[in-house]
Amino acid sequence: MTNAHNTVFYCGATTDLYKRIQEHKNSVFKNSFTLKYNINKLVYFESFTIAGDAFEREKQVKAGSRKKKTDLIEGMNPEWKDLSELLKTNQGEELIRIKKHLR
């Protein structure tokens, strides 16, 4: 996730991505990093069937450089659009399919 100016990144793992995005957009967690830096735009995501794999990947992404994170985002979402609406309409599966094809 990022802010409106794409200057701050946030990476996390969850079992319900759409719900988690809504929590960020609605400022549910008052002392959070995402609220402090106005991070409420989903620009990249990955899907896993095993939670442990998701948490491992989260660690990898967090440890990567800003350039690596930017490359990941631009590989899936070159226009840096907010992808949360796609999740709402179940079009997120199409993004996952496209991303797997690019690998």
Tell me about this structure:
The protein is mostly helical and 103 residues long. The protein has one domain. It has six helices and no strands. It is globular and about 30 Å long. The two termini are 21 Å apart.
The domain tally reads 1
Portion in helices: 40-55%
Give the class from helix and strand content and strand pairing.
mainly alpha
Strand runs, count: 0
Radius of gyration: 13 Å
What is shown here, in short?
Helices cover 51% and strands 0% of the residues. By secondary structure, it is mainly α. The longest helix has 13 residues, at 51-63.
Give short descriptive properties of this protein.
6 helices, 103 residues, 0% strand
Question: What secondary-structure arrangement, pairings included, does this model have?
Answer:
Layout: H1 17-25, H2 33-36, H3 51-63, H4 66-76, H5 84-88, H6 92-102
